[in-house]
Amino acid sequence: MNVLVTGGCGFIGSNLVRYLRRERPSWKVVNLDKLTYAGNLENLQDLEGDPNHVFVKGDIGNRELLDLIIRQHGIEAIFHLAAESHVDRSILGPEVFIQTNVLGTHVLLEAARAHQLKRFLMVSTDEVYGSLGPTGAFTESSPLRPSSPYSASKTSADLVTLAYHHTFGMDVVVTRCSNNYGPYQFPEKLIPLMIANALDDKPLPVYGDGGNVRDWLHVEDHCAALVLAMEKGKSGEVYNIGGGAERKNIEIVKAILAMLGKPESLIRFVQDRPGHDRRYAIDPSKIRSELGWKQARTFEDGLSQTIKWYVDHRSWWERVTSGAYRQYFETQYANRLKAA
Ligand code: NAD
Ligand code: TYD
């Protein structure tokens, strides 16, 4: 099969491209990525010279480019991951989130429809459901109540994708996954940021009281679920993907410090994120029972492997966080600390 992966140089995308090359070696993988601050071709350095991985630098909103790629490479299906993905950035500047996540997804859907592709897999998020109270878990029929500009933009893309199934009969599958962690995650997200700061003995900024809960899944387990959804998912269906590993942020931060042998005095409670969702938890029983998905690792094993990866790949995270990013982070942190 010839597939297009959008956002294949980001965190999940680069892990997915590598997973596909390993697990589906006969597939040709075309990777379309704009290489924003979050996308690095270096993430796929080990695939250099691989004739079945083709990288194209470009925007998902460029219809002419999409037509060219689909025709030239005989694309049959799309894994759509390209997005602006960070909630904090969506609070500082929502516009690009609407541009890429909503309008960009629409251009991609139109291209997929025009070329009558076999399947469009929309990688959505559990954040479309909004925040949970202390009990319960999101199912595929939970109401959609996104809170941030990021999650609202993803909800729009998710719903427009489903509308293309209902209205035009397009073959689409939507997946809604919980928080991922693992190698190549940009250190603006909780786990890699805390590991990098702890390694440098810098303060670890915990928002609010640190009691917010996320449900963590290793990125490779997510990739396995995406391939199952592509190959076996039922058209027009939504599949929740979650790791069953609910943790408070403060528990994770303390676990990272303990694993690295660093003191808890590095923790700083800083101003909370506006509109901060309190708790996410995913019920993944549908993808388990209907598609046979199983996760391969526990959170504790995955976290310690991930910490080791960041210890061994200091040059990677130092490079991707230099320059403009460093400035963004220092300013964000100083403002939050002042306001706390
Ligand atoms: P990421 O920010 O690491 O990567 C996004 C990639 O998309 C980057 O390589 C970037 O260059 C590319 N991109 C951005 N705008 C583009 C555009 N206009 N055209 C082409 N490429 C563009 O994000 P991620 O964490 O890997 O997330 C991937 C997808 O998975 C996103 O759709 C996100 O909403 C979804 N998701 C992420 C998580 C998570 O925990 N990270 C959980 C559930 C769902
Ligand atoms: P994040 O990794 O940004 O993912 P998301 O907002 O999509 O869930 O944040 C995960 C949790 O960690 C969230 O509750 C916010 C919190 N957090 C901090 O406490 N400090 C930080 O510096 C960051 C980036 C996040």
Description of the structure:
With 340 residues, the chain is α/β, with parallel strands linked by helices. The chain has a domain at 2-178 and 218-241: NAD(P)-binding Rossmann-like Domain (Rossmann fold, 3-Layer(aba) Sandwich), CATH 3.40.50.720. The protein is 44% helix and 17% strand. It has helices at 11-23, 63-73, 87-92, 95-114, 149-168, 190-199, 219-232, 249-260, 285-291, 299-312, 314-320, 324-339; strands spanning 2-6, 28-33, 53-57, 77-80, 119-125, 172-177, 179-181, 204-207, 213-218, 238-241, 246-248, 267-270. The strands form three sheets. It has a seven-stranded parallel beta sheet with strand order 3-2-1-4-5-6-10, sandwiched between helices. It has a three-stranded mixed beta sheet with strand order 7-9-11. Strands 8-12 form a two-stranded parallel sheet. It is globular and about 55 Å long. The model has no long low-confidence stretch (mean pLDDT 96). The chain binds nicotinamide-adenine-dinucleotide and thymidine-5'-diphosphate. Thymidine-5'-diphosphate binds next to helix 6 and strand 8. Thymidine-5'-diphosphate is lined by residues 87, 179, 189-190, 193, 205-207, 212, 214, 249, 273.
